[in-house]
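Human:
Take a look at this sequence-structure pair and walk me through the tokens.
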Amino acid sequence: MNKRGTRILTITAVIAAAVSTLTACAGDVPMRAAENANDPACADVIVRLPETVGGMERRTTNAQSTGAWGEHAGVQLVCGIEPSGPTTDACINVNGVDWIRDDSAAPIFRFEAYGRNPGLAVYIDSEQSSGTDAIIDLSSVAQQLPQERKCTSVDDTLDVQKPSE
């Protein structure tokens, strides 16, 4: 093979590699990293993310300390958010993790692993996935984050005397 033929093969290989790389990147879920995404505790979370959440396959993302699942990214996770303070949002405990639920943008629900620092938020499109299934699947990774607070009930916070029975 002459020099020209070798050069054409080399250029073709470089173009093929570039197209392959661009095609792979085109599949990334575009997300934005949280302010504290570089916290080492988030790295502990991200390396433990499950391959499936709510029956949906994991996708690659373009931002640090994030995760996504499903063809249309029906579940998205962001680590490194500023943790919420006291709230009146609904709180549920799943496998030892307190989750507060914000349904103000329904059908997109925001769940936050309450009392964890750095903060962890999960956004679930309820038209694509069950929030319950997703939170169950992600509770074990949320446990990697240090817990500073727990949810309480009104009975826990008020000094209310219960009537005698």
